[in-house]
Design a protein that fits this description.
Elements: E1 2-7, H1 20-27, E2 32-37, E3 50-52, E4 60-62, H2 64-77, E5 82-92, H3 95-101, E6 106-111, H4 119-125, E7 128-131, H5 141-152, E8 185-186, E9 189-190, H6 200-218
Parallel strand pairs: 1-2, 1-6, 5-6, 5-7
Antiparallel strand pairs: 3-4, 8-9
The structure holds adenine.
Adenine (ADE) binds next to strand 5.
Length: 224
Amino acid sequence: MRIDIITALPKLLESPFSDSILQRAIDRKLVEVHLHNLRDYGIGKHKQIDDYQFGGGAGMVMMLEPIHRCIEKLQKERTYDEIIYMTPDGSRFDQKTANALSLKGNIMILCGHYKGIDQRARDLWITREISIGDYVLSGGELAAAVVCDAVIRLLPGVLNDETSALTDSFQDNLLAPPVYTRPSEYEGITVPSVLTSGNFAAIEAWREDQAIKRTKERRPDLLE
Ligand code: ADE
């Protein structure tokens, strides 16, 4: 998989891809992530990328031309399965969308800033608009990092234990059951005895019960 991220603040996105699981995925050549500084495609001496909005009102709008130049350059080099725009008014990101995106080959992600991007860019080039939740971030970068993390960890070979993504919360519309590690007793507090019983059928049944119980308590909407 290849992910191209267009951003006015590439530095914000450097650290998420230079540590831990995402770094390992890149090192193992399971994914390529390329950051493109929108400023490099800006207009004139000042490399302008935003301007006042027509009709008045506070907040700048990201201009069409720098976005067009950058997308056009990338599209000349390869075709993209999705061109995603990160925006609080997009569809809410969830595990199902992460699963679907993990099956794609080339993805482009455009991060918005200020009041957003000129609507014509959205109409012309964007194939999917994603929000990570009902709150407004200063820009799309952190949201793009969230999406990339959720997608990349699903790629085969990224997680050491191939099954571990399958037992994540949300994969079956269920939250994950509680987990415990050593010691089995700490200051008199013990782990559920079934987990140390060695009876794997009983452990599986307990985990499923706990997952259902937790989902009913915390996220009944997932069971509807
Ligand atoms: N940009 C600003 N806020 C955002 C959000 N909640 N989701 C995606 N992109 C955003």
